[in-house]
Each structure stands twice: as C-alpha cells, then as structure tokens.
Amino acid sequence: MKHRELIERLLENSNYEGKKVENYGLLNGKAGLCLYYYVTGRNLKSPEHTQKGHQLLDELYQGLTPQIPLDIPNGLAGIVLALSYLIRNGYSTGNINVVAKNIDCHIYRTICNAMDMDMKDKAAVPMIDIFLYVNLRYRDMEDEDERWIMRRLMIELMNYIYINRPETFFLEPLPFSMQYPLCEYIWALVQMHRMGIERRRINFILREMHYIVFAQRPMLQANRLLLAYVAALVADELDLPEWKEFADSLCRSIDIKYILYKEMNDKNIFAQDGVIAVYLLIQAYNRLLEEKLFCDEHELLHRIEKSSAWERASREKEYFEKHRSLQGFCGTILFMDYLKK
Questions:
Q1: Residues 314, 324: Cα–Cα separation, whole Å
Q2: CA-to-CA distance for 96 and 212, rounded, in angstroms?
Q3: What are the DSSP calls for 61-86, one per residue?
Q4: Which of 51, 62, 63, 324 has the smallest number of CB atoms closer than 10 Å to its CB?
Q5: What's CA 26's distance to the chain center, in Å?
Q6: pLDDT tens digits for 120-160?
C-alpha cells in the first residue's frame, strides 16, 4: 500500500474508533492535519481532501480556548501560525490580525504574569516558543498600537530569556532535535536585527555570548549542523567574520552520510528530529554560504520510503497516533510530494 493511502486509512480508522485528535497544535495535532489536507487537496486537485481541511478548520475555530497550552508544537502559538499560513496562501479567507487578536492578548497577559512572577527555569525554555511566535506574528500586524505592544513583548522576552537562561540553555538536545534552545534564541535575535529592533542590544548579547558559543562542539553532528546554520545566519546579517569562521569550523567536522545512516536510526525520518530536518538545514545553510553541503535527494527519498516507521505505524496504533500530524507522517508525505515535484 502506498504511503499516503496507508496514513489516510489509519487516520480514518482512528476517527471511527473514537480516537479523534484532541491535540490542537501545529506539529502534533489538529492544526497540522488541517494544513496537510488543504495542501494535499491543492496538490492533487482533490475536493475530498480540501473538504476535510474545511472540517478541521471549523473544529480549530470552535476549539480555541484559553485552556489550550501556549507553545508552538501543541498550543495556541502554533495554531495561529497555521491559520496565518492558510490565509496568506489563499486556502482560507479572513484577516489573521482579527482572528488572532484575542489569542495575542491572552499570550501577552500570560507571559507578562510569568515574567513578573520570575519563574526562571520553569519558564525560560517554553518562553523561547513564544519568542519565536512573537517574531513571526509581528510581521503580519498592521495596527501600529498592536505592533508597538508586540514589539515591547519581543524585547522583554529577548532580555528575560537571556538573563534568566537555565544552566541547560547551551546544552545540545540528545537525541537530535530542532528544539535546541541556544539555536532557537540566536535565530530569533537575527530576525529582530533584520527588522531593525534593538540592534545595539542584540550586538551586545551576541558579543557577550560568543565566548561560550564558540566553545561549543556538539557531540551529535546533526546538532553541529544546526549550530553552524544559526552561526552562518549571524555572520550574514551582522557581517561578523568570526561567526562565519565558527560556522565553517563546525561544517568541516560534519559528514552528512554519517548523520543520515549512523546518528539516525531507520525510523528517524521526521521533520523535527529526523532526516527531513537535516535536509531542510542543509538547504538553509547552502543559501547563506558559498561552500555547499551535499545531500542526494533521490537517496534521501529512498531512505524515507524504505523506513520501517511506516510498517510500525500500520501495526501499532499508539505509535501512529503519536506521530500522525505535521511533525510525523502527514508532514513526511508533504515533504515527499515536494521532493518528487
């Protein structure tokens, strides 16, 4: 059975058995499935897929409550990013700033309360998700008062996370994951600098951080690749040659085949912690620097298609339900469609 047919049959079976997706998030829940059906409907010119996207979109709007977590993978921030994508790309109509206004206010109040309570270790890493979200939302905002508020929140988060960073902030994730707090934070700083926000403060933070950052040599080569990418971003945006030298030094110790076949097992195919993440990082890195990293797309596609993750999903319901959304099998199918174009 082809991969798309297998996953969509398993999705239907889960619904029939009363195991509907309760998670509303972008990477692990209903928002990710909604994107999958809309994008697949357009790619395949399939009204059936588009109709399922409509149904999930209605469920998303009806289910938005303050009880949903705030983060991107499972919560409100990810849902708003999904809705923004759908509206911006013509899958849905409306104004994202109207849709997101109450959610933005709820996130603002919650985060300000957390900073006022000085939650430190408990709040620092989850706050990075909101820092990323605020960076992305700010670009869509049209009302100057709302932009001013979001800008202030962005600056407060930048400083709060840096000052209250836990001891684990600089540690690489084991096993590999795109949720690498140090790299997420640096990426967000670069986006702020591009928007002309607090450039002097950002320069100061990066100068102060670079002594610790440049001492990093992640054990996993996949984590080295992620750190090399954000270092290259800094070098490109702020014109800091020492950051480019650091990125180059990391890349000289990276073997892509070793990552794909030694560091990652047969089932590591997904977009947040698998071979798809590695491919996306390579493409992003190559857009920045003249010295290119190479990844054979046909070999990568074969690696994904032959993974035993598909067979495991067909026989283990719990495994499938954990990996069914955008971070899992649905995102993997969209990626395979992209490579086959």
A1: 11
A2: 39
A3: HHH--TTS--STTTSHHHHHHHHHHH
A4: 62
A5: 9
A6: 544 434 799 999 999 999 999 999 999 999 999 999 999 99
What's at 172, amino acid-wise? E
Mean per-residue pLDDT, 228-236: 97
Which single residue is written with the structure tokens 């939302």? 137
User: Could you tell me if 305 and 277 are in contact, meaning their C-beta atoms sit under 8 angstroms apart?
Assistant: no
Give the largest Cα separation in the chain, rounded: 57
The conformation of residue 173, written as its DSSP 8-state character, comes to P
CA pair distance 203, 182, nearest whole angstrom: 16
Mean pLDDT, the chain, integer: 93
C-alpha separations of 63 from 66, 82, 97 in Å: 10, 14, 18
Cβ atoms of 179 and 272 closer than 8 Å: yes
**Given the structure tokens 């869509």, which residue do they identify?**
140
Residues 296-306 have pLDDT tens digits of 999 999 999 99
Q: What confidence score (pLDDT) does residue 341 get?
A: 82
Q: How far apart are CA 333 and CA 47, in angstroms?
A: 18
Q: How far is CA 134 from CA 113, 129, 158, 275, in A?
A: 16, 9, 11, 28
Secondary structure (DSSP) of 9-73: HHHHHHHHTT-------TTTSHHHHHHHHHHHHHHHT-HHHHHHHHHHHHHHHHH--TTS--STT
Give the pLDDT mean for 228-235: 98
pLDDT, tens only, 165-199: 988 899 999 999 999 999 999 999 999 999 999 99
261: DSSP letter? I
